[in-house]
Amino acid sequence: MTENIYQGEDFEEKVKRQVEFYFSDSNLQTDRFLWKIYESNDGWVELKTILTFGRMRQYRPEEKVIEALKSSDKLKLSANNEMVSRNDPVKDFNELKNQRKRNTVHIEGFPKDLTQEDLEEFFNKKISPSLPESKEIGSIRRIRNRKTKEFFGVVDVEFKSSADSEYFLNELEVSYPIGLINDENRESVDKKDILNKMSLLTFQEMKENGKRFGVNEVTKRKNSFNSKNDVKVFRKNQKKNDESKKESGSEEIKEESEAQEDKTEEPSEDKE
Q1: Mind listing the pLDDT tens digit for each residue in 103-112?
Q2: Is 2 part of a structural domain of the chain?
Q3: What's the superkingdom here (predicted)?
């Protein structure tokens, strides 16, 4: 089978960003396949293994990939250029887990036919430039049905900092595909295209308290936003809970179990 080789002028940037994501705080320890290799090889992973990942197959030849990775300030290559590792030591897993949850925003209302690439392009071009700190997104997770793989139009977006996530959540009004809503384009925005958003912590607390979905399916997620009063009450309670949790040193939240997530840049576990 002939593979489609990417020929774009941004080849180097795409390769670098993709592999940096694999080794990032957002992905590395949550990717069972990659983490197992990383741990068993003192933090090193064979480049040939990385090149088998779904999103990396389009980047060839290997020599060109090596040159792209040499320009990364987050990654390093072995002396023979056959292994890749990250420059910074891995942070504590529980600390990162809680940080990811605090910096993640739950967003509903996207068209159900959007691909991972569509979402990445939207956030990179329409949202990232407006963020106050990092100007880039940590990860984008599409929420899909485990059995049918149907995308529900729901994403969990992890930002690089709490400042960015809070700004996106509280200061920006966003629609798809326009992006940021302002005074100039507000009248042209269809209300059905406006995205609904809340912090992941608030969403999970609402879920645990039975404030979401109707009778059975995750496709009823939009009910999370049906009652604005519920959202306001839960946000207020969440702030109180966050303060009490910080005092007790515990901010652990249950993991979602009923929906499959697509990590931004595709999970490296999916190697078919």
Answers
A1: 999 999 999 9
A2: no
A3: Eukaryota
